[in-house]
Write a structure and sequence with these properties.
The protein is α/β, with parallel strands linked by helices and about 260 residues long. It has helices spanning about 35-45, 65, 70-75, 85-90, 165-175, 185-205, 205-215, 235-250, and strands at about 1-10, 10-20, 25-30, 55, 80, 95, 100-105, 110-115, 125-130, 135, 140-145, 155-160, 225-230, 250-255. It is built from 8 helices and 14 strands.
């Protein structure tokens, strides 16, 4: 497998995976959270011919994961996602059946499973060929499916925020809100920031959550782990990369906001 990150953050997510099938390489797109023009530009920068890509998987219907979906459909792409996500995007999407294998290209199969996010129908993907098994989990806190039967060769997983930083700020904000004589402007600002932290805590994966969730997987065949969707404000890519790599003993990479894998 060859992996290209065209961007990974709340500003937009898009990945190209080139998968080995028999004697050829077949590219698929996972997420299309930029405009079609941006995706085309990013593909050109990576020497990727978008005309060779026919398939896109989308985890859920937030704009930073599906922005170009309509334009891709107009250009003949097959878009696969959950039934709930298809209802939000377009009737022309191909809805997947949760926990059921579907052929999306010659020799490439995908099994979707539900994840815990703040939108209905959000899912992760197990992408399988005869040679490799890939796990792709973006934008979620956790998942309920038992994936222990799969031996993953590569794992793409969200690592959104540093739990130590966010929980420290969360408790500090709660203390501020409950102070006597607090100014109204400070109170309202603190409440707003607290809500943002609560959303992150309830719908995104922290560094500690990523490590705990990885421990549930069979990584005996895993060659690389790719961390996705790092927060601009509450992530430290060096700390996260080192922590995951030290915990799993597997080479770990960070998918960058503006594209590239480090």
């Amino acid at each position: 497998m060859n992996a290209f990150c065209l961007g990974s953050s709340s500003s937009g997510n898009c990945f190209i995976l080139e998968l080995e099938v028999k004697d050829k390489s077949i590219p698929i797109m996972v997420e299309c959270g930029f405009s079609y023009k941006e995706i085309l530009t990013k593909c050109n920068m990576n020497n990727i011919l978008i005309s060779n890509i026919r398939t896109c998987l989308i985890t859920h219907s937030h704009n930073d994961h599906c922005k170009a979906a309509t334009d891709l459909l107009k250009r003949g792409f097959k878009i696969y996602c959950s039934k709930e996500t298809a209802k939000e995007i377009s009737k022309d999407c191909d809805p997947l059946v949760i926990n059921t294998s579907t052929k999306i290209e010659d020799g490439i199969f995908v099994i979707p499973f539900l994840v815990n996010h703040d939108i209905s129908g959000a899912c992760g993907f197990i992408i399988k060929t005869a040679k490799e098994t890939i796990l792709f989990i973006n934008d979620c806190k956790s998942w309920g499916a038992n994936l222990s039967e799969f031996k993953f060769d590569y794992v793409f997983i969200e690592c959104n925020y540093d739990h130590e930083v966010v929980y420290a700020q969360y408790h500090e904000l709660k203390n501020i809100i409950h102070q006597n004589g607090i100014e109204q402007s400070t109170f309202m600002e603190s409440v707003q920031k607290l809500k943002q932290h609560e959303r992150n805590i309830n719908s995104h994966m922290s560094l500690s959550g990523t490590i705990k969730n990885l421990a549930k997987l069979n990584l005996s065949n895993c060659k690389s782990i790719f961390l996705m969707h790092l927060s601009d404000r509450f992530a430290n890519e060096y700390k996260m990369k080192n922590a995951v790599q030290n915990s799993t003993k597997i080479k770990t990479f960070v998918c960058k906001k503006n594209g590239g894998i480090k």
